Amino acid sequence: METANMIANGLLGAIGNTQLIKLQRASAATGCNILGKAEFMNPGGSVKDRAGLAIIEAAERDGTLKPGGTIVEGTAGNTGIGITLVANARGYKSVIVMPETQSKEKIEFLRMIGADLRLVPAKPYKDPGNYVHVSERLAAELGGVWAKQFDNIANREGHRLTTGAEIWAQTGGKVDAFTCSCGTGGTLAGVGMALKSHNPAVKIILADPDGSGLYGWVKTGDLTPSGSSITEGIGQSRVTKNLEGAPIDDALRITDAEALEQVFDLMIHEGLCVGGSAGINVAAAIRIARAMGPGHTIVTILCDGGARYQSKLFNPEFLRAKNLPVPAWLS
């Protein structure tokens, strides 16, 4: 590759084109190639940089977001970070509404990068006080553009054109299954659409935590949630616009303990520091690999880094209070 082609044109040019990393222990244990897309290597530290960029570019194209304008979003944190950084680079103001229960690391990071952060009590989607509804009302009050990540299909389209296309190219078309958890559904839907357009036989698997209704939706059409999870930014009990028509073949339920086993294993044995949603994704990839048998290639998403959850995932007191395993090196 020519050196000139390795120079990104500002922040926007540095989003995407992340590496696929072979997960050594998961691959060895299953006889498959289990590959994690290193989305924590995006400038804002997560896969949501892609959504932030795609949503802002779509709003620019349709004329709703004008120079010096304001973009408002309700988020568990990572999309807010992606939107704020892209907005900074493009000259917009960003107002971010987030449940106060999210990790203190994400809260402090959003403030650090200049977001106008509004914390609200955590409430279910059916409640008018839910962060998504608050952000919609706030956008109207401020005369800003509501990013609407859950139901704005610019989100999944961005993943179809970038994440999915990259995975197909990076594997040389040799991909048998893709596993991914869902918040908005943009990543799973967009990547699924891209991979299926090349090869309809690729299996698209939704990985779902406890407390979410999407596993039941895929399996039986029942969105009723049960249980709870410490993971942030994933899990849903409604079918978003991004999920409508998504080519999903199956779903797996992954417990917090199963996800944390992968988070801790990747950290101490492979030096990969990832968050809880990545743990869910990898656990699902291992299950699918075992079901498919040796010789297959399964791709998943390493959504963000573990440092964003230090006060939770890597906090022995927090883990013990939730009756979850504590990694040996912290106990």
Quaternary state of the chains: single chain
Number of strands: 10
Strand content: 15-25%
| H and E order | HEHEHEHEHEHEHEHEHEHHEH
Strand order of the largest sheet: 1-2-10-7-8-9
Distance between the termini: 46 Å
Mean pLDDT over the full residue set: 96
Describe the structure.
The structure is a single chain. This protein has 331 residues and is α/β, with parallel strands linked by helices. The protein has helices at 10-14, 24-30, 48-61, 78-90, 104-112, 131-142, 154-170, 186-198, 214-220, 256-270, 276-292, 316-321; strands at 20-22, 33-38, 70-74, 93-99, 116-120, 145-146, 177-181, 203-209, 250-254, 297-302. The strands form two sheets. Strands 1-2-10-7-8-9 form a six-stranded mixed sheet, with helices on both faces. It has a four-stranded parallel sheet with strand order 5-4-3-6, sandwiched between helices. Helix 9 links the parallel strand 8 and strand 9. Helix 10 packs across helix 11 (276-292). The chain is globular. The termini are far apart. The model has no long low-confidence stretch (mean pLDDT 96).
Short description:
The chain contains twelve helices and ten strands. With 331 residues, it is α/β, with parallel strands linked by helices.
Blueprint (SSEs and pairs):
Blueprint lengths: L9 H5 L5 E3 L1 H7 L2 E6 L9 H14 L8 E5 L3 H13 L2 E7 L4 H9 L3 E5 L10 H12 L2 E2 L7 H17 L6 E5 L4 H13 L4 E7 L4 H7 L29 E5 L1 H15 L5 H17 L4 E6 L13 H6 L10
Parallel strand pairs: 2-10, 3-4, 3-6, 4-5, 7-8, 7-10, 8-9
Antiparallel strand pairs: 1-2
Helix pairs in contact: 2-11, 3-4, 3-7, 7-8, 10-11
